[in-house]
Amino acid sequence: MTVDIFIPCFIDQIFPQTGMNMVKILEKCDVEVFYNDQQTCCGQMAFNSGFWDEAKELGEKFIKDFLNDRPVVAPSASCVGYVKNYFDKLFFNTALHIEYKRLQKNIFEFSDFMVNKLEITDVGATFNHKVTYHDSCAALREYGIKEEPRKLLEKVKGLELIEMKDTDVCCGFGGTFSVKHEAISTAMAEQKVQNALNTEAEYIISTDSSCLMHQEGYINKFKLPIKVAHLADVLASGW
Q: Which residue has the higher pLDDT, 175 or 239?
């Protein structure tokens, strides 16, 4: 199988190793990976901020960057959920109607692709740590994944998964929400991190680096004894 990969802004600029780890895992699963180095942002930030003209311009480029029938895989439920759910609002009954409908069917969040398309849950990873899992709002409510990341974590040797209280409650990032409503956003991060600390886990794991970045900012500010890691980084460990 050959796939295209989409590397979102957060991954590209702040967590590039996560993107590389996703490629490492896909290639281990005998998937040929193609990366279009002309790709840019999917436009989610502009859309969520009300700049729909700018979001449509970015969306048009995004669609044209993936004009083929290959699956598109990305390490972000947030970005993929946006493309699947909101391109309808931008491109319904336009000249790109057929193209965006094809993309909607072909774009996948990484854990969904691994479990439901490749039907692989064990990649031979080893991660000797206690972890807890954060269900991002986008992953759970927009994209609709919950069990897939957990199925992958269950197969990691040495890993102990401990569920935190209110794992499905927002961490407070919310894109521009964390900028516009800093006090509320910080309080939500405090609650989320405290729930993680109460499990005595060493790591918070998620499918979305934006959520992890937000929580890591709070963790680092108060020098708390817990770390964060993307699911792909865990699955790429130990081999």
A: 239
